[in-house]
From TrEMBL:
GO terms for biological process: proteolysis. PANTHER family: DNA REPAIR PROTEIN RADC, UPF0758 PROTEIN YEES-RELATED. Belongs to the UPF0758 family. One of its GO terms (molecular function) is metallopeptidase activity. It holds the Pfam family UPF0758_N. CDD domains: MPN_DUF2466. Residues 1-23 are annotated as: Disordered. Keywords: Hydrolase, Metal-binding, Metalloprotease, Protease, Zinc. The keyword Metal-binding applies. Residues 114-236 form the MPN domain. Transmembrane segments: none annotated. This is DNA repair protein RadC.
Length: 236
């Protein structure tokens, strides 16, 4: 007679994740992040938040739902809660990692002349905004040496529109003593091509700013894995 199968819920029926986790950790320590696939790095991030769960199916579900590692980190909390197995604590972990990435890129801008570090500006804006599910209108306020005075989200809107009030933009610039601006907003659709409304709004801000000695250096639209510069398109 064959041995009886262990009942569900007994120790013998439970998968042993300890060995898998240890092997993944050792590979990461020995060979670095490049040795891990995207789902494995997501697994790794979830280890501490989900100590008793197999995080591999959760990681694979995240990539299937959101399409990429960066999109999974940037996904709204409400959508992350739809993934079976993710708790509030594990979602906190993913959101903290995303915030850390954005803050790292933001720190790269401090004490720099932004126009001399344009690739770092774009990296920061993409990390912060490319996966946002609603439009945000952001302004980088610069001093006379093009150093960063402030980085502020002025307005948030819907999936395809953000209300922007040009006089409020200039009022804030005067409050901060800014002499130049970089305007930024995102297109949740993923296509960064400027709309007619984008162009008209930008021109209004430029027209109000110029007599006051405030220059609009650029307006950047952040799409999915791409950005568009009004200056490069000769729209400013």
């Amino acid at each position: 007679m064959s041995d009886p199968k262990p009942e569900a819920g007994t120790k013998a029926s439970q998968p042993d994740h300890k060995g898998h986790r240890q092997r993944l950790r050792e590979r990461f320590r020995k060979n670095g992040e490049q040795s891990l696939a995207d789902y494995e790095l997501l697994e790794f991030l979830l280890f501490s938040a989900l100590p008793r769960q197999d995080t591999k199916p959760i990681a694979k579900a995240l990539l299937k739902r959101f399409g990429s590692f960066s999109a999974a980190l940037a996904a709204p909390r409400a959508r992350l809660k739809e993934i079976t197995g993710l708790s509030d604590v594990s979602i906190d972990t993913l959101k903290a990692v995303h915030a850390a990435i954005a803050r790292y890129h933001r720190a790269e801008l401090d004490e720099r002349r932004l126009l001399d570090s344009w690739s770092k500006v774009i990296a920061y804006l993409q990390a912060s905004m490319e996966h946002a599910d609603i439009e945000q209108f952001r302004i980088l306020f610069l001093d006379k040496k093009n150093g960063l005075l402030a980085d502020e989200i002025q307005q948030t809107g819907t999936v395809d529109h953000t209300p922007v009030y040009p006089r409020e933009v200039i009022r804030r610039a005067l409050e901060l003593g800014a002499t130049a601006l970089i305007l930024v907003h995102n297109h949740p659709s993923g296509d960064p091509a400027p709309s007619r409304a984008d162009i008209e709004m930008t021109r209004k801000i430029v027209d109000i700013a110029k007599p006051l000695g405030i220059e609009v250096h650029d307006h950047v639209i952040v799409g999915l894995r791409n950005t568009v510069s009004f200056r490069s398109l000769r729209l400013i």
